Amino acid sequence: MLIRCWGSRGSISVSGEDFLKYGGDTTCIEVVSDSGDLIVIDAGTGIRCLGNRLARNGTRDIHMLLTHAHWDHLSGFPFFKPIYRKESRISIYGPQPTQDSLKRIISKTMTAPNFPIELEDISADISFLGMGLKGYSIGSVNISTIPLSHPNQGVGYRLEEDGRSFVFLTDNELTFRHPFGLGYDDYKRFCTDADLLYHDAEYKREEYESETKGWGHSVYLDTLNLALESNVKTLGLFHQNQDRTDSQVDEMVRDCKDVIRQKGSKLECFAVAAGTEVKI
């Protein structure tokens, strides 16, 4: 599998000289399987640039996995060029178990008076498959799911192909259990022996304890502990805070690497940026 990031920012897209290294677009991950299937995880603002490339290349078949319905993970959908091409065939899977409930989530991104074009007016052949917390396969990729500990419900994904695994758990609060969420040990089991883990790492300890506990995001050192205890090979710190500058994100990565060295672990760790590519 090839995993390519088009946006790793949380909450709202940002711009400016302090955000050049890690980028300002919100969540969008592209996964290309060894058999050539295209899987897109989330439709934050990063999906716009991905869609421009797919439209240029004439890509027709797209599978889209949605983690949850918060705006920073959906706001790019109306600007995703393949939805305006009649040749496109887009299958959408998400946190809701039924086709109708998933369609309602997507429809809200293109509803008057907030957007001039409605979902019913676009040209692509779009299938809403629901699925919720069921496992399924897309081509050669087997997909497992787990509830996120996050306000308003969501789902995390584990993608496996030929004995290799990628786990994506953005917007997951490891030390606070939300309704529908699970406990720390459940996420530990879900991540066990993953080749690559992208996990929410938005907050510093002092921010979390003083203000943001219960908001649905994790302290980066808690995310690191999860990776270490789960025997993950490579950890990507994800969902960069909208106010976190490049230098501040770099500092968080250095902290993680110091802990890894102290523990004598072989874990690789980096912060996920727009443009990051990992082959597993």
**Order of the strands making up the biggest sheet:** 6-5-4-3-2-1-14
Mean pLDDT: 95
What letter string, H or E per element, gives the SSE order?
Answer: EEEHEEHEEEEEHEHHEHEE
Shape: globular
Total discrete domains: 1
Distance between the termini: 5 Å
Number of H/I helices: 6
Q: Considering the protein shown, what is the CATH homologous superfamily?
A: Ribonuclease Z/Hydroxyacylglutathione hydrolase-like
Strand residue percentage: 25-35%
Per the CATH scheme, the topology name is Metallo-beta-lactamase, Chain A
Structural class: alpha/beta
CATH first level:
Alpha Beta
CATH architectural grouping = 4-Layer Sandwich
Number of β-strand runs = 14
The percentage helix is: 10-25%
Main β-sheet: number of strands, strand sense, barrel status?
7 strands, mixed
> How large, in whole angstroms, is the Cα Rg?
18 Å
Unreliable runs: none
